[in-house]
Design a protein that fits this description.
- By secondary structure, the chain is of the alpha/beta class.
- The chain has a single domain (10-316), classed as 3-Layer(aba) Sandwich (Rossmann fold).
- It has helices at residues 4-14, 85-92, 132-144, 161-171, 175-178, 238-248, 307-316; strands at residues 45-51, 54-61, 72-78, 104-108, 111-112, 118-119, 149-159, 181-185, 210-215, 257-260, 269-274, 278-283.
- The strands form 2 sheets. Strands 1-2-4-3-7-8-9-12-11-10 form a 10-stranded mixed sheet, sandwiched between helices. A two-stranded antiparallel ribbon has the order 5-6.
- Strand 1 and strand 2 (54-61) form a beta hairpin.
- The longest helix is centred in the middle third of the chain and has 13 residues, at 132-144.
- 45% of the residues are buried.
- It binds 2-acetamido-2-deoxy-beta-D-glucopyranose (10 copies).
- One 2-acetamido-2-deoxy-beta-D-glucopyranose binds next to loops.
């Protein structure tokens, strides 16, 4: 599965030493023909895998220019609670060559709870027996062994509860060594009901590159934290969460560079940036939405940038 240099890289990362630039080999999936259902540039295929004793599924988009011998990046994109993989493909647009001409895009699907609501680990309502962090780790290994992927260029984005899961992936010792950069959108960062704190963050490497977008008017996952419009649990304040990453990544909170992103007549967007490693966008006119220049599944409200383009640019600057 993983090449020896990659494992050495993991060991160095977990012991906190500087990561040498290991010569990483392409994944084992290079040279393999695509599954019959998967057509480069065609409609995404729905594939099932078994993980944690459950049947799981994901949609996969392989770009038109895919070559079985040329390693490409992998982008994982997680839907919000109550949503599904197809909806996330439409919302996040990672299968659209205008945004993503080269990478394989994969949309995992959450397991439905007893009331039929699809969600991810981290939501207070999600059974802790369904571990979507282990599922993600299994999924990455599964994909690396079947498609020609660059194991140093695996990325994760997600909306709401899917964004909360992306935050947890950044804090997990295994997945933080498999994923190069993280992008939660309107992230739901729940506090533990017993401790009133975020779960422990056991990242295996630093710095962790992470970018978050949040609507100031978000009523579902409040910018300032609290119970949101559901009674399922409290989330942390977005700024406390972002500042937590800046601190973990060894920046002082005051080291941020803030800038106004959108020219008039667009509504105000403030970007906070710690050395292009931790970034956050406060979008004053958006609610619980994926920021976009055109109306999308989330909202008819628009802003001056597409979160998808900003995320693609952020991802392109990071490798493991
Ligand atoms: C995903 O959601 C869309 C829109 O609600 C719906 O049309 C589609 O059937 C759903 N797909 C699955 C697999 O649930
Ligand atoms: C993919 O197939 C699985 C298994 O049949 C199904 O549960 C899931 O809803 C499908 N996903 C989509 C996005 O159609
Ligand atoms: C792909 O993105 C471009 C740029 O936003 C847009 O014009 C086009 O409609 C999108 N294509 C699809 C199939 O959604
Ligand atoms: C919340 O924290 C308590 C005490 O540390 C722990 O026992 C529990 O498993 C945590 N809950 C979740 C959902 O992680
Ligand atoms: C994560 O860190 C906490 C302390 O912050 C520790 O109790 C726990 O065992 C760690 N978990 C893992 C999986 O390393
Ligand atoms: C949310 O936080 C408030 C204020 O700290 C507290 O009273 C309430 O019990 C919390 N709710 C949950 C579900 O944890
Ligand atoms: C953290 O930053 C300080 C300077 O601000 C530097 O002296 C120290 O070596 C850094 N530590 C790590 C682990 O990068
Ligand atoms: C950015 O730094 C200033 C101090 O220069 C501080 O007041 C502000 O809270 C910081 N912003 C964030 C998002 O941490
Ligand atoms: C900022 O990033 C650059 C380029 O990655 C790096 O060389 C530099 O050490 C970083 N500075 C700090 C203060 O982390
Ligand atoms: C976020 O934007 C809102 C609306 O413009 C503003 O009131 C608030 O102070 C901003 N917060 C930060 C941390 O930028």
């Amino acid at each position: 599965m993983w090449s020896i240099p990659f494992i050495i890289c993991l060991l160095l990362a977990t012991t906190g030493q500087a990561i040498q630039s290991p010569i990483l080999k392409p994944g084992d999936g290079c040279g393999k023909s695509l599954p019959a259902k998967v057509t480069p540039g065609g409609a995404s295929a729905n594939i099932s895998i078994s993980s944690g004793g459950l049947d799981r599924s994901y949609l996969i988009h392989v770009p038109r220019n895919y070559d079985i011998n040329t390693p490409v990046p992998l982008i994982l994109s997680y839907h919000g609670r109550t949503k599904n993989a197809s909806e996330q493909e439409l919302l996040s647009q990672f299968s659209n060559s205008s945004y993503n001409p080269n990478a394989i895009a994969v949309y995992p699907q959450g397991v439905a709870n007893s009331r039929g609501i699809r969600q991810w680990y981290g939501d207070p309502d999600a059974p802790t027996t369904i571990n979507d962090i282990s599922f993600t780790s299994d999924l990455i290994s599964h994909l690396l062994s079947r498609y020609c992927l660059d194991p140093t260029r695996v990325y994760a984005a997600g909306k709401s509860n899917g964004g909360g899961l992306v935050g947890l992936l950044a804090c997990d010792p295994t997945t933080s060594s498999q994923i190069a950069a993280f992008a939660p959108v309107s992230g739901a960062f729940y506090l533990n009901k017993t401790t009133g704190k975020l779960p422990p963050c056991n990242t295996s490497r630093l710095p962790i590159p992470i970018i978050e977008f949040h609507g100031w008017k978000d009523h579902t996952i409040y910018y300032l934290g609290g119970p949101g419009n559901s009674s399922r649990g409290n989330t942390t304040s977005v700024l406390a969460w972002v500042d937590g990453w800046a601190t973990r990544d060894n920046f002082s909170v005051s080291q941020n560079v803030s800038s106004s992103v959108c020219p008039s007549p667009f509504k105000k967007v403030t970007k906070y940036n710690w050395n292009d490693t931790v970034e956050h966008y406060n979008i004053s006119n958006l609610f619980h939405d994926w920021p976009s220049t055109y109306p999308n599944d989330d909202t008819h409200l628009t802003t001056c940038f597409d979160a998808t383009s900003v995320i693609m640019d952020f991802f392109s600057r990071w490798t493991l």
